Amino acid sequence: MEKIILAADIGGTTCKLGIFDEQLERIEKWSIKTDTSDVTGYALLENVYESFVEHVDNSEFAFSDVLGVGIGIPGPVNFETGEVNGAVNLYWKETVNVREIFQQFVDCPVYVDNDANVAALGEKHKGAGHGADDVVAITLGTGLGGGIISNGEIVHGHNGSGAEIGHFRVDHDQRFKCNCGKSGCIETVASATGVVNLVNFYYPKLTFKSSILQLIKDNEVTAKAVFDAAKAGDQFCIFITERVANYIAYLCSIISVTSNPKYIVLGGGMSTAGLILIENIKTEYHNLTFTPAQQGTEIVQAKLGNDAGITGAAGLIYTYIIEKEGVK
Ligand SMILES: [Zn+2]
């Protein structure tokens, strides 16, 4: 009998849930509201479990067919223990051991990882990573996050901070403060927030006329408006787009000499808003990067969009149980 994988991508407002088969093909997906009323995490996880039971009962499968449960969490996760060291979006201030709680409901293995890591795993297996063993995913959203897959496995590092690439300092002038408490992190100059930071910093200093002047004055600039105007030939917005692209290309070049990925997958709202951004990143990346480390490496757009999280959460079971242990 075919076994199934249960997957949960926990977010601040909704939890995306899914059932996958042993080939990591999705059988069903749905979502429930995130219960943030209980800071211990128990109520949230119990809701997820109950929703799984309901959906498995209504499928052709039984709960005894479940091979494992994979869970992605928006916070720092200790992959070995399943502990989450606080999660701002879920109002978890203390450590929550997600695996320990979920293991009270189920007999099968439970794997927990950070949401950026599982999204990278999703893109590796079913998205723009084409199943390659070395894939890096960079999410360009409100912030900048990422996941590194090396030799087929997620890079966690000794305390789980591996692939926290948003906090790599690229702005040595440290013009903008980061959420992490330090300044100059790439997130402050190359995320959607970073684009706005750069616009507000450079506009008073430059003599360019710009089509987005009114948006700047009204404090309503968005990354998308900047890239759209750059595409239309706005010199100031082209200047900003090049600055942002250069920071990201620099990050990609460091990643290339560190883990030499086959694919660097760019995802998040900014990657879809700005094809002009991706073209600029590729050009600068090829200029910057040590030649052997960039040979055969492709910078590509993410494919799975919002489904990267649940696919990758299921991918934890696929990677660490089916592929690694050969369990069927
Ligand atoms: Zn930072």
UniProtKB/TrEMBL annotation:
- What's one Pfam family the UniProt record gives for this protein? ROK
Q: Which InterPro entries match?
A: ATPase_NBD, ROK, ROK_cs, ROK_glcA
Q: Which SUPFAM superfamilies match?
A: Actin-like ATPase domain
Top EC group: transferase
One of the record's GO cellular component terms: cytoplasm
Q: Which GO terms describe its molecular function?
A: ATP binding; glucokinase activity
Entry keywords, A to Z: ATP-binding, Kinase, Nucleotide-binding, Transferase
Q: Which PROSITE patterns match?
A: ROK
Gene Ontology BP annotations: glycolytic process
Q: What is its EC number?
A: 2.7.1.2
Q: Would the keyword Kinase be found if you checked this record's keyword annotation?
A: yes
Question: Which family does the UniProt entry place this protein in?
Answer: Belongs to the ROK (NagC/XylR) family.
| Protein name in UniProt | Glucokinase
Organism this protein belongs to = Staphylococcus ureilyticus (Staphylococcus cohnii subsp. urealyticus)
